[in-house]
């Protein structure tokens, strides 16, 4: 909310992002309750890497937001000549204050989209 001057959302529901074409995805799509990273190296990375690579190869002018050191490793899958890649720390409560807050990824994404004549996201 600090980036765009919007109210703090009352829920974590991202359906309104998805309806505008935003595709939130983690590298690993499942986890055992209260065990961060418990399903890492179980095969999810093969699938999500393929999704990221396919989007990068077949689309243009996408914005990839890579949050956290694990996500930053996905940079090699993205054609940075065609897309904007934004990186910062993970927005978890343990690390958000060390770079996520204030990174302005949402306004930077909108500025990029606007510069390409693409509809901005109503974050």
Automatic annotation (TrEMBL):
Pfam families referenced in this protein's UniProt entry, alphabetically: UDG
Keyword DNA repair on entry: yes
GO biological process terms on file: base-excision repair, AP site formation via deaminated base removal
EC number: 3.2.2.27
Catalytic activity: Hydrolyzes single-stranded DNA or mismatched double-stranded DNA and polynucleotides, releasing free uracil
Enzyme class: hydrolase
Molecular functions per Gene Ontology: uracil DNA N-glycosylase activity
Keywords: DNA damage, DNA repair, Hydrolase
Domain Uracil-DNA glycosylase-like span(s) in chain numbering: 16-114
Function noted in UniProt: Excises uracil residues from the DNA which can arise as a result of misincorporation of dUMP residues by DNA polymerase or due to deamination of cytosine.
PANTHER family in alphabetical order: URACIL-DNA GLYCOSYLASE
Membership in a protein family: Belongs to the uracil-DNA glycosylase (UDG) superfamily. UNG family.
Protein name: Uracil-DNA glycosylase
């Amino acid at each position: 909310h600090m980036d765009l001057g919007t109210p703090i959302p009352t829920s974590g529901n991202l359906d309104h992002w998805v309806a505008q074409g935003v595709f939130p995805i983690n590298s690993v799509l499942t986890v055992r309750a209260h065990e961060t990273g418990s399903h890492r190296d179980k095969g999810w990375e093969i699938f999500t890497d393929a999704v990221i690579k396919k989007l990068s190869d077949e689309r243009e002018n996408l914005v990839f937001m890579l949050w956290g050191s694990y996500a930053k490793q996905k940079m090699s899958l993205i054609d940075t000549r065609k897309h904007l890649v934004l990186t910062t720390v993970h927005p978890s409560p343990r690390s958000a204050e060390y770079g996520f807050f204030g990174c302005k990824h949402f306004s930077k994404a909108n500025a990029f989209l606007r510069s390409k004549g693409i509809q901005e996201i109503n974050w």
